[in-house]
Amino acid sequence: MQKLIQAMIKTGSARVASLCLTIISIKIFASVLGPYGVGLFSMLQQILHTSSAIAAFGGQTAIVQGVASRQEEARSTYLITVFWVMAFGVLLTALFLIASAPLIANRLFHTSDASFTSLIRWLAVPLVFTVTMTYFNSLLNGLRAIGRMAFVQVICAGILMLLAYPTALSVSEGHPLAFAFLLSLSMGAGASMAFIFCFKAGWIKLIAMGFRLGARLADLKAFFAFAGMMLILNFIASGSLLIVRSLVVQHGGLEAAGIFGAAWSVSMQYVTLMLGSFSAYYLPSLTRLRNSPDKVTLIENMVRLNIIIMTPLVATVIAVKPLIIRLLYAEDFMPSLEIMRWLLIGDYLRTTSWCFGMTLIAFARIRLFFWKEASLHLIFLGIAYYAIAVRSDIQGVGVGSLVINSINLLFLLIYVARDYRFARPKLLIGGWLFGFGIVLIASWMTWEDVSVSWLKAVCIISVALIHSLLFILKTKPIASDGSSHS
User: Distance (Å, rounded) from C-alpha 163 to C-alpha 103?
Assistant: First the structure.
Protein backbone atom coordinates (compact mmCIF):
# COMPACT_ATOMS: atom_id res chain seq x y z
CA MET A 1 0.00 0.00 0.00
CA GLN A 2 2.81 2.41 0.87
CA LYS A 3 4.57 1.73 -2.46
CA LEU A 4 1.28 2.27 -4.24
CA ILE A 5 0.79 5.65 -2.54
CA GLN A 6 4.43 6.67 -3.18
CA ALA A 7 4.12 5.82 -6.87
CA MET A 8 0.84 7.70 -7.07
CA ILE A 9 2.39 10.80 -5.47
CA LYS A 10 5.42 10.64 -7.75
CA THR A 11 3.43 10.39 -10.97
CA GLY A 12 0.49 12.35 -9.63
CA SER A 13 2.50 15.51 -9.00
CA ALA A 14 3.80 15.50 -12.58
CA ARG A 15 0.36 14.73 -13.94
CA VAL A 16 -1.18 17.56 -11.93
CA ALA A 17 1.37 19.92 -13.46
CA SER A 18 0.61 18.53 -16.91
CA LEU A 19 -3.12 18.89 -16.36
CA CYS A 20 -2.77 22.49 -15.16
CA LEU A 21 -0.74 23.40 -18.24
CA THR A 22 -3.28 21.73 -20.51
CA ILE A 23 -6.12 23.56 -18.75
CA ILE A 24 -4.40 26.90 -19.39
CA SER A 25 -4.00 26.00 -23.07
CA ILE A 26 -7.68 25.11 -23.48
CA LYS A 27 -8.70 28.25 -21.58
CA ILE A 28 -6.70 30.32 -24.07
CA PHE A 29 -8.36 28.56 -27.01
CA ALA A 30 -11.80 29.04 -25.43
CA SER A 31 -11.21 32.75 -24.75
CA VAL A 32 -9.79 33.58 -28.18
CA LEU A 33 -11.64 31.16 -30.44
CA GLY A 34 -14.80 30.19 -28.52
CA PRO A 35 -16.62 26.84 -28.88
CA TYR A 36 -15.77 26.66 -32.61
CA GLY A 37 -12.01 26.68 -32.00
CA VAL A 38 -12.19 24.27 -29.08
CA GLY A 39 -14.38 21.97 -31.17
CA LEU A 40 -11.90 22.01 -34.06
CA PHE A 41 -8.92 21.35 -31.76
CA SER A 42 -10.71 18.52 -29.95
CA MET A 43 -11.56 16.90 -33.29
CA LEU A 44 -7.92 17.08 -34.40
CA GLN A 45 -6.77 15.59 -31.10
CA GLN A 46 -9.27 12.75 -31.49
CA ILE A 47 -8.11 12.03 -35.06
CA LEU A 48 -4.50 12.03 -33.86
CA HIS A 49 -5.34 9.76 -30.93
CA THR A 50 -7.20 7.29 -33.14
CA SER A 51 -4.52 7.21 -35.85
CA SER A 52 -1.67 6.86 -33.34
CA ALA A 53 -3.45 3.95 -31.63
CA ILE A 54 -3.66 2.23 -35.01
CA ALA A 55 -0.07 3.08 -35.97
CA ALA A 56 1.26 1.70 -32.68
CA PHE A 57 -0.91 -1.42 -33.12
CA GLY A 58 -2.37 -0.75 -29.69
CA GLY A 59 1.07 -1.64 -28.41
CA GLN A 60 1.61 0.62 -25.40
CA THR A 61 0.10 -1.78 -22.88
CA ALA A 62 1.69 -4.72 -24.70
CA ILE A 63 5.15 -3.14 -24.28
CA VAL A 64 4.60 -2.46 -20.57
CA GLN A 65 3.36 -5.99 -19.97
CA GLY A 66 6.07 -7.55 -22.18
CA VAL A 67 8.96 -5.59 -20.65
CA ALA A 68 7.75 -6.15 -17.08
CA SER A 69 7.43 -9.91 -17.60
CA ARG A 70 10.79 -10.50 -19.41
CA GLN A 71 14.43 -10.37 -18.43
CA GLU A 72 17.72 -9.47 -20.18
CA GLU A 73 18.07 -10.96 -23.69
CA ALA A 74 14.38 -11.86 -23.99
CA ARG A 75 13.52 -8.27 -23.14
CA SER A 76 15.89 -6.91 -25.81
CA THR A 77 14.57 -9.08 -28.62
CA TYR A 78 11.02 -8.22 -27.65
CA LEU A 79 11.77 -4.49 -27.74
CA ILE A 80 13.38 -4.57 -31.17
CA THR A 81 10.54 -6.70 -32.55
CA VAL A 82 8.05 -4.11 -31.33
CA PHE A 83 10.24 -1.32 -32.73
CA TRP A 84 10.01 -2.69 -36.26
CA VAL A 85 6.28 -3.35 -35.93
CA MET A 86 5.61 0.24 -34.85
CA ALA A 87 7.91 1.70 -37.52
CA PHE A 88 5.95 -0.18 -40.16
CA GLY A 89 2.63 0.83 -38.60
CA VAL A 90 3.40 4.55 -38.40
CA LEU A 91 4.60 4.60 -42.02
CA LEU A 92 1.39 3.00 -43.31
CA THR A 93 -0.87 5.17 -41.14
CA ALA A 94 0.89 8.40 -42.13
CA LEU A 95 0.57 7.52 -45.81
CA PHE A 96 -3.12 6.73 -45.29
CA LEU A 97 -3.73 10.12 -43.63
CA ILE A 98 -2.03 11.92 -46.50
CA ALA A 99 -3.81 9.98 -49.25
CA SER A 100 -7.26 9.87 -47.64
CA ALA A 101 -7.38 13.42 -46.26
CA PRO A 102 -10.20 14.61 -48.60
CA LEU A 103 -12.38 11.63 -47.63
CA ILE A 104 -11.64 12.06 -43.90
CA ALA A 105 -12.46 15.77 -44.03
CA ASN A 106 -15.74 15.05 -45.79
CA ARG A 107 -16.77 12.26 -43.40
CA LEU A 108 -15.72 13.85 -40.11
CA PHE A 109 -16.04 17.59 -40.70
CA HIS A 110 -18.74 17.31 -43.37
CA THR A 111 -16.94 19.75 -45.64
CA SER A 112 -14.78 19.66 -48.78
CA ASP A 113 -12.88 22.81 -47.80
CA ALA A 114 -9.23 22.50 -48.89
CA SER A 115 -7.99 23.94 -45.58
CA PHE A 116 -9.44 20.97 -43.67
CA THR A 117 -7.89 18.53 -46.14
CA SER A 118 -4.48 20.15 -45.71
CA LEU A 119 -4.89 20.16 -41.93
CA ILE A 120 -5.50 16.41 -41.82
CA ARG A 121 -2.50 15.72 -44.06
CA TRP A 122 -0.21 17.68 -41.74
CA LEU A 123 -1.37 15.51 -38.81
CA ALA A 124 1.02 12.88 -40.20
CA VAL A 125 3.88 14.81 -38.57
CA PRO A 126 2.60 14.76 -34.96
CA LEU A 127 1.52 11.17 -35.61
CA VAL A 128 5.16 10.09 -36.06
CA PHE A 129 6.22 11.92 -32.90
CA THR A 130 3.29 10.52 -30.89
CA VAL A 131 4.10 6.90 -31.75
CA THR A 132 7.81 7.49 -31.01
CA MET A 133 6.89 8.91 -27.61
CA THR A 134 4.55 5.97 -26.99
CA TYR A 135 7.38 3.50 -27.61
CA PHE A 136 9.94 5.11 -25.30
CA ASN A 137 7.39 6.05 -22.64
CA SER A 138 6.20 2.43 -22.56
CA LEU A 139 9.78 1.34 -21.96
CA LEU A 140 10.04 3.80 -19.05
CA ASN A 141 6.77 2.50 -17.63
CA GLY A 142 7.68 -1.16 -18.04
CA LEU A 143 10.97 -0.60 -16.22
CA ARG A 144 9.10 1.43 -13.57
CA ALA A 145 10.80 4.77 -14.22
CA ILE A 146 7.39 6.25 -13.56
CA GLY A 147 8.57 9.68 -12.44
CA ARG A 148 10.44 10.29 -15.68
CA MET A 149 7.57 8.87 -17.71
CA ALA A 150 5.17 11.35 -16.11
CA PHE A 151 7.60 14.23 -16.65
CA VAL A 152 7.46 13.59 -20.40
CA GLN A 153 3.77 14.49 -20.25
CA VAL A 154 4.67 17.74 -18.49
CA ILE A 155 7.02 18.65 -21.34
CA CYS A 156 4.26 18.04 -23.92
CA ALA A 157 1.74 20.09 -21.96
CA GLY A 158 4.31 22.84 -21.32
CA ILE A 159 5.01 23.34 -25.03
CA LEU A 160 1.28 23.29 -25.70
CA MET A 161 0.69 26.02 -23.13
CA LEU A 162 3.60 28.24 -24.24
CA LEU A 163 2.45 28.24 -27.85
CA ALA A 164 -1.31 28.26 -27.24
CA TYR A 165 -1.85 32.02 -27.52
CA PRO A 166 0.12 32.63 -30.75
CA THR A 167 -1.54 29.52 -32.19
CA ALA A 168 -5.00 30.77 -31.26
CA LEU A 169 -4.28 34.16 -32.85
CA SER A 170 -3.04 32.48 -36.02
CA VAL A 171 -6.16 30.27 -36.22
CA SER A 172 -8.42 33.29 -35.60
CA GLU A 173 -6.76 34.99 -38.59
CA GLY A 174 -7.71 32.09 -40.85
CA HIS A 175 -4.70 29.76 -40.51
CA PRO A 176 -6.00 26.49 -38.94
CA LEU A 177 -2.73 24.74 -39.91
CA ALA A 178 -1.28 26.35 -36.79
CA PHE A 179 -3.05 23.64 -34.77
CA ALA A 180 -1.12 20.92 -36.66
CA PHE A 181 2.19 22.72 -36.08
CA LEU A 182 1.36 23.10 -32.37
CA LEU A 183 0.66 19.37 -32.00
CA SER A 184 3.88 18.55 -33.89
CA LEU A 185 6.03 20.69 -31.59
CA SER A 186 4.33 19.37 -28.44
CA MET A 187 4.59 15.68 -29.38
CA GLY A 188 8.09 16.16 -30.80
CA ALA A 189 9.33 17.62 -27.52
CA GLY A 190 7.78 14.71 -25.60
CA ALA A 191 9.33 12.09 -27.89
CA SER A 192 12.76 13.72 -27.58
CA MET A 193 12.59 13.88 -23.80
CA ALA A 194 11.46 10.24 -23.51
CA PHE A 195 14.40 9.19 -25.70
CA ILE A 196 16.84 11.24 -23.59
CA PHE A 197 15.58 9.64 -20.38
CA CYS A 198 15.97 6.14 -21.84
CA PHE A 199 19.44 7.00 -23.16
CA LYS A 200 20.68 8.43 -19.84
CA ALA A 201 19.37 5.40 -17.95
CA GLY A 202 21.27 3.11 -20.29
CA TRP A 203 18.14 1.42 -21.60
CA ILE A 204 18.82 2.27 -25.22
CA LYS A 205 21.43 -0.49 -24.89
CA LEU A 206 18.54 -2.93 -24.54
CA ILE A 207 17.26 -1.81 -27.94
CA ALA A 208 20.79 -1.81 -29.43
CA MET A 209 21.28 -5.36 -28.17
CA GLY A 210 18.00 -6.24 -29.86
CA PHE A 211 19.34 -4.91 -33.17
CA ARG A 212 22.30 -7.30 -32.86
CA LEU A 213 20.15 -10.24 -31.80
CA GLY A 214 17.44 -9.51 -34.34
CA ALA A 215 13.68 -9.76 -34.16
CA ARG A 216 12.18 -13.12 -33.26
CA LEU A 217 9.07 -14.74 -34.61
CA ALA A 218 8.08 -15.86 -31.10
CA ASP A 219 8.19 -12.26 -29.88
CA LEU A 220 6.18 -11.15 -32.90
CA LYS A 221 3.51 -13.74 -32.12
CA ALA A 222 3.52 -12.78 -28.43
CA PHE A 223 3.18 -9.10 -29.27
CA PHE A 224 0.27 -9.58 -31.66
CA ALA A 225 -1.40 -12.08 -29.35
CA PHE A 226 -1.53 -9.22 -26.85
CA ALA A 227 -1.55 -6.14 -29.06
CA GLY A 228 -3.58 -7.46 -31.98
CA MET A 229 -6.80 -7.43 -30.01
CA MET A 230 -5.74 -4.19 -28.31
CA LEU A 231 -5.34 -2.65 -31.77
CA ILE A 232 -8.87 -3.59 -32.77
CA LEU A 233 -10.14 -2.51 -29.36
CA ASN A 234 -8.36 0.86 -29.51
CA PHE A 235 -9.74 1.35 -32.98
CA ILE A 236 -13.27 0.62 -31.74
CA ALA A 237 -12.85 2.83 -28.66
CA SER A 238 -11.24 5.80 -30.40
CA GLY A 239 -13.25 5.30 -33.54
CA SER A 240 -16.58 5.25 -31.70
CA LEU A 241 -15.74 8.52 -29.95
CA LEU A 242 -14.61 9.99 -33.26
CA ILE A 243 -17.95 8.99 -34.79
CA VAL A 244 -19.80 10.56 -31.87
CA ARG A 245 -17.87 13.81 -32.30
CA SER A 246 -18.59 13.71 -36.04
CA LEU A 247 -22.32 13.24 -35.34
CA VAL A 248 -22.22 16.24 -33.02
CA VAL A 249 -20.53 18.29 -35.75
CA GLN A 250 -23.10 17.14 -38.31
CA HIS A 251 -26.07 18.11 -36.13
CA GLY A 252 -24.69 21.21 -34.41
CA GLY A 253 -21.48 22.28 -36.11
CA LEU A 254 -18.04 22.69 -34.56
CA GLU A 255 -19.60 24.94 -31.89
CA ALA A 256 -21.61 21.97 -30.59
CA ALA A 257 -18.45 19.85 -30.79
CA GLY A 258 -16.78 22.41 -28.54
CA ILE A 259 -19.64 22.17 -26.01
CA PHE A 260 -19.45 18.38 -26.05
CA GLY A 261 -15.64 18.48 -25.88
CA ALA A 262 -15.74 20.65 -22.75
CA ALA A 263 -17.95 18.20 -20.83
CA TRP A 264 -16.04 15.14 -22.03
CA SER A 265 -12.65 16.72 -21.36
CA VAL A 266 -13.44 17.72 -17.76
CA SER A 267 -14.74 14.23 -17.01
CA MET A 268 -11.78 12.52 -18.63
CA GLN A 269 -8.96 14.75 -17.39
CA TYR A 270 -9.29 14.41 -13.64
CA VAL A 271 -10.13 10.70 -13.84
CA THR A 272 -7.23 10.05 -16.23
CA LEU A 273 -5.00 11.97 -13.85
CA MET A 274 -5.84 9.65 -10.98
CA LEU A 275 -5.89 6.39 -12.92
CA GLY A 276 -2.62 7.26 -14.66
CA SER A 277 -1.03 7.84 -11.28
CA PHE A 278 -2.39 4.53 -10.01
CA SER A 279 -1.50 2.45 -13.07
CA ALA A 280 2.18 3.40 -13.21
CA TYR A 281 2.69 1.19 -10.15
CA TYR A 282 -0.40 -1.03 -10.20
CA LEU A 283 -0.10 -2.67 -13.64
CA PRO A 284 3.61 -3.67 -13.50
CA SER A 285 3.25 -4.84 -9.88
CA LEU A 286 0.12 -6.85 -10.60
CA THR A 287 1.79 -8.43 -13.64
CA ARG A 288 4.67 -9.73 -11.50
CA LEU A 289 2.44 -11.46 -8.91
CA ARG A 290 2.03 -15.21 -9.17
CA ASN A 291 0.31 -16.00 -5.86
CA SER A 292 -3.48 -15.69 -5.95
CA PRO A 293 -3.84 -14.32 -2.38
CA ASP A 294 -1.25 -11.64 -3.18
CA LYS A 295 -3.27 -10.66 -6.25
CA VAL A 296 -6.42 -10.28 -4.16
CA THR A 297 -4.50 -8.26 -1.57
CA LEU A 298 -3.23 -5.79 -4.16
CA ILE A 299 -6.68 -5.49 -5.74
CA GLU A 300 -8.29 -4.82 -2.34
CA ASN A 301 -5.69 -2.18 -1.52
CA MET A 302 -6.28 -0.53 -4.88
CA VAL A 303 -10.07 -0.46 -4.35
CA ARG A 304 -9.54 0.90 -0.84
CA LEU A 305 -7.32 3.71 -2.09
CA ASN A 306 -9.80 4.43 -4.88
CA ILE A 307 -12.66 4.88 -2.40
CA ILE A 308 -10.60 7.15 -0.16
CA ILE A 309 -9.54 9.46 -2.98
CA MET A 310 -12.33 9.34 -5.54
CA THR A 311 -15.31 9.87 -3.21
CA PRO A 312 -14.34 13.42 -2.19
CA LEU A 313 -12.84 14.16 -5.61
CA VAL A 314 -15.94 13.22 -7.65
CA ALA A 315 -18.25 14.85 -5.09
CA THR A 316 -16.24 18.07 -5.24
CA VAL A 317 -16.28 18.21 -9.05
CA ILE A 318 -20.06 17.66 -8.99
CA ALA A 319 -20.59 20.38 -6.40
CA VAL A 320 -18.59 23.06 -8.23
CA LYS A 321 -19.01 22.00 -11.88
CA PRO A 322 -20.47 25.37 -13.04
CA LEU A 323 -17.41 27.13 -11.63
CA ILE A 324 -15.11 24.61 -13.33
CA ILE A 325 -16.68 25.28 -16.74
CA ARG A 326 -16.41 29.05 -16.27
CA LEU A 327 -12.81 28.83 -15.09
CA LEU A 328 -11.58 26.33 -17.66
CA TYR A 329 -13.63 27.54 -20.61
CA ALA A 330 -16.09 30.46 -20.76
CA GLU A 331 -19.75 31.37 -20.28
CA ASP A 332 -20.52 30.13 -23.82
CA PHE A 333 -19.72 26.57 -22.67
CA MET A 334 -22.35 26.37 -19.88
CA PRO A 335 -24.67 24.06 -21.93
CA SER A 336 -22.01 21.37 -21.43
CA LEU A 337 -23.33 20.93 -17.86
CA GLU A 338 -26.28 18.93 -19.26
CA ILE A 339 -23.85 16.25 -20.49
CA MET A 340 -21.36 16.60 -17.67
CA ARG A 341 -23.81 15.78 -14.85
CA TRP A 342 -24.32 12.28 -16.28
CA LEU A 343 -20.63 11.73 -16.95
CA LEU A 344 -19.60 12.58 -13.38
CA ILE A 345 -21.84 9.90 -11.84
CA GLY A 346 -20.31 7.39 -14.23
CA ASP A 347 -16.80 8.50 -13.23
CA TYR A 348 -17.19 6.96 -9.77
CA LEU A 349 -18.20 3.65 -11.33
CA ARG A 350 -15.47 3.86 -13.96
CA THR A 351 -12.60 4.26 -11.50
CA THR A 352 -13.81 1.29 -9.44
CA SER A 353 -14.17 -0.83 -12.59
CA TRP A 354 -10.63 0.08 -13.56
CA CYS A 355 -9.26 -1.48 -10.33
CA PHE A 356 -10.74 -4.83 -11.34
CA GLY A 357 -10.31 -4.45 -15.09
CA MET A 358 -6.51 -4.16 -14.85
CA THR A 359 -6.42 -7.84 -13.85
CA LEU A 360 -7.49 -8.79 -17.37
CA ILE A 361 -4.50 -6.96 -18.84
CA ALA A 362 -1.96 -7.90 -16.17
CA PHE A 363 -2.72 -11.62 -16.51
CA ALA A 364 -3.17 -11.51 -20.29
CA ARG A 365 -6.88 -12.33 -20.35
CA ILE A 366 -6.94 -10.33 -23.55
CA ARG A 367 -9.69 -12.21 -25.36
CA LEU A 368 -12.12 -11.64 -22.50
CA PHE A 369 -10.97 -8.01 -22.16
CA PHE A 370 -11.46 -7.48 -25.88
CA TRP A 371 -15.02 -8.77 -26.06
CA LYS A 372 -16.02 -6.90 -22.93
CA GLU A 373 -14.63 -3.57 -24.12
CA ALA A 374 -15.79 -3.98 -27.71
CA SER A 375 -19.34 -4.76 -26.58
CA LEU A 376 -19.40 -1.77 -24.22
CA HIS A 377 -18.14 0.66 -26.86
CA LEU A 378 -20.66 -0.56 -29.41
CA ILE A 379 -23.48 -0.17 -26.86
CA PHE A 380 -22.22 3.34 -26.13
CA LEU A 381 -22.10 4.18 -29.82
CA GLY A 382 -25.64 2.88 -30.31
CA ILE A 383 -27.02 4.98 -27.43
CA ALA A 384 -25.12 8.06 -28.62
CA TYR A 385 -26.34 7.63 -32.21
CA TYR A 386 -29.95 7.34 -31.04
CA ALA A 387 -29.60 10.39 -28.79
CA ILE A 388 -27.93 12.64 -31.38
CA ALA A 389 -29.26 11.45 -34.74
CA VAL A 390 -32.79 10.51 -33.69
CA ARG A 391 -33.56 12.73 -30.69
CA SER A 392 -31.10 15.59 -31.42
CA ASP A 393 -30.08 15.59 -27.76
CA ILE A 394 -26.33 15.35 -27.08
CA GLN A 395 -26.81 14.85 -23.33
CA GLY A 396 -27.80 11.30 -24.28
CA VAL A 397 -24.06 10.70 -24.75
CA GLY A 398 -23.66 11.23 -21.00
CA VAL A 399 -26.49 8.77 -20.33
CA GLY A 400 -24.77 6.23 -22.56
CA SER A 401 -21.52 6.64 -20.64
CA LEU A 402 -23.31 6.02 -17.34
CA VAL A 403 -25.02 2.90 -18.72
CA ILE A 404 -21.83 1.25 -19.98
CA ASN A 405 -19.93 2.08 -16.78
CA SER A 406 -22.67 0.38 -14.76
CA ILE A 407 -22.59 -2.73 -16.97
CA ASN A 408 -18.78 -2.83 -16.87
CA LEU A 409 -18.61 -2.73 -13.06
CA LEU A 410 -21.20 -5.48 -12.67
CA PHE A 411 -19.38 -7.73 -15.13
CA LEU A 412 -15.97 -7.22 -13.50
CA LEU A 413 -17.31 -7.87 -10.00
CA ILE A 414 -18.62 -11.24 -11.18
CA TYR A 415 -15.31 -11.97 -12.91
CA VAL A 416 -12.96 -11.28 -9.97
CA ALA A 417 -15.29 -13.09 -7.54
CA ARG A 418 -15.19 -16.19 -9.73
CA ASP A 419 -11.55 -16.23 -10.90
CA TYR A 420 -9.70 -14.75 -7.91
CA ARG A 421 -12.10 -15.56 -5.07
CA PHE A 422 -12.41 -11.87 -4.33
CA ALA A 423 -14.36 -12.04 -1.07
CA ARG A 424 -15.69 -8.45 -1.17
CA PRO A 425 -15.10 -7.57 2.52
CA LYS A 426 -18.14 -5.96 4.14
CA LEU A 427 -16.26 -2.80 5.12
CA LEU A 428 -15.04 -2.40 1.56
CA ILE A 429 -18.56 -2.88 0.14
CA GLY A 430 -20.08 -0.57 2.74
CA GLY A 431 -17.47 2.12 2.16
CA TRP A 432 -17.98 1.99 -1.60
CA LEU A 433 -21.79 2.07 -1.37
CA PHE A 434 -21.72 4.99 1.06
CA GLY A 435 -19.34 6.85 -1.24
CA PHE A 436 -21.58 6.20 -4.25
CA GLY A 437 -24.54 7.41 -2.23
CA ILE A 438 -22.72 10.68 -1.56
CA VAL A 439 -22.06 11.06 -5.30
CA LEU A 440 -25.74 10.44 -6.17
CA ILE A 441 -27.05 12.85 -3.53
CA ALA A 442 -24.54 15.51 -4.58
CA SER A 443 -25.65 15.14 -8.18
CA TRP A 444 -29.35 15.32 -7.24
CA MET A 445 -28.79 18.44 -5.13
CA THR A 446 -26.98 20.29 -7.94
CA TRP A 447 -28.72 18.80 -11.01
CA GLU A 448 -30.12 22.02 -12.47
CA ASP A 449 -27.59 24.45 -10.97
CA VAL A 450 -25.81 26.79 -13.39
CA SER A 451 -23.96 28.56 -10.60
CA VAL A 452 -22.32 27.20 -7.47
CA SER A 453 -24.33 27.17 -4.25
CA TRP A 454 -21.51 27.37 -1.74
CA LEU A 455 -23.68 26.12 1.13
CA LYS A 456 -24.47 22.97 -0.82
CA ALA A 457 -20.87 22.64 -1.95
CA VAL A 458 -19.43 22.93 1.57
CA CYS A 459 -21.91 20.35 2.91
CA ILE A 460 -21.23 17.88 0.08
CA ILE A 461 -17.45 18.19 0.26
CA SER A 462 -17.41 17.99 4.07
CA VAL A 463 -19.50 14.81 4.14
CA ALA A 464 -17.29 13.23 1.46
CA LEU A 465 -14.09 14.08 3.33
CA ILE A 466 -15.51 12.79 6.63
CA HIS A 467 -16.47 9.55 4.89
CA SER A 468 -12.92 9.10 3.56
CA LEU A 469 -11.41 9.86 6.96
CA LEU A 470 -13.67 7.37 8.75
CA PHE A 471 -12.96 4.78 6.08
CA ILE A 472 -9.22 5.20 6.63
CA LEU A 473 -9.67 4.78 10.39
CA LYS A 474 -11.91 1.72 10.08
CA THR A 475 -9.87 -0.17 7.48
CA LYS A 476 -6.20 -1.00 7.24
CA PRO A 477 -4.34 -2.10 4.12
CA ILE A 478 -3.45 -5.79 4.09
CA ALA A 479 0.13 -6.92 3.62
CA SER A 480 0.85 -9.66 1.12
CA ASP A 481 1.38 -12.14 3.91
CA GLY A 482 -2.16 -11.43 5.13
CA SER A 483 -1.24 -9.26 8.11
CA SER A 484 -2.47 -5.70 8.50
CA HIS A 485 -0.16 -2.75 8.42
CA SER A 486 -0.60 0.98 8.19
Answer: 30
